[in-house]
Amino acid sequence: MAGRLELSLEASSRRLEIDCNSARFMLATATIKTRLSQLGELATPKPEFRQLVAFLREENEDELELKDKPLRLFQLTQFACGGLALGSRYNHCALDGVFVHQFNTNLASLSCSEGLAVVLTSNQTIFRVRNSPQISHPHFYYSKATNTDNSFTLSGTSTVLIDKTQPYNQIHAIDFSAKDIQALKKASLKDEKLKNCTAFQAVATKIWKARSIAVEIAEDKISTMLFPVDTRTRTVP
Hints:
The protein is an alpha+beta fold. The protein is built from three helices and five strands, in the order βββββααα. The chain is 18% helix and 12% strand. The strands form two sheets. It has a three-stranded mixed β-sheet, with no helix packed on it.
């Protein structure tokens, strides 16, 4: 994590590689007058959280070349009550959300003088690129739709025109309990058009439908839904 991303030295490749040059990662420390109890519910994003990541952007960052940008940045913030918060930012080309969670879990475990809570494997041979590449599966998700006026992802990006005089950036966290998911699956099978419905299909369809109604997507428009998939439990090693 102290290295930098750079393009592969292979002339015909545009693949990114990590140069383990010990260039550093950034750690900022800060103190605030806010007490942890003043933040209230911590599960829902709120403007007050911005002070916990205020220093996770370097000066003139947009002008830096890729090889000069840290892969990981941390901000350790101390509250007035003595509590601590660790904010982090990472390059998504090198890390995904699951790994960041595992990293933070191990960091917390080591901080308590305990061993690694999650034992990771460094064997990445399964991801080795064949020379030359042999693509045997049709990857339709990389295709570009002929009409992308209404594309969106789970992160909320969209090209749909929305009335910006209305509060469009409000965030609400919604928890689906096992009972809620079961109810969605039952509703999906009610008309007997489907033989079965997985939990993922039920929740994904509900999100897609609710969002489409919210932004008033026309029935003849194409929309796409992007979601992450964790394959760690399906691959060996």
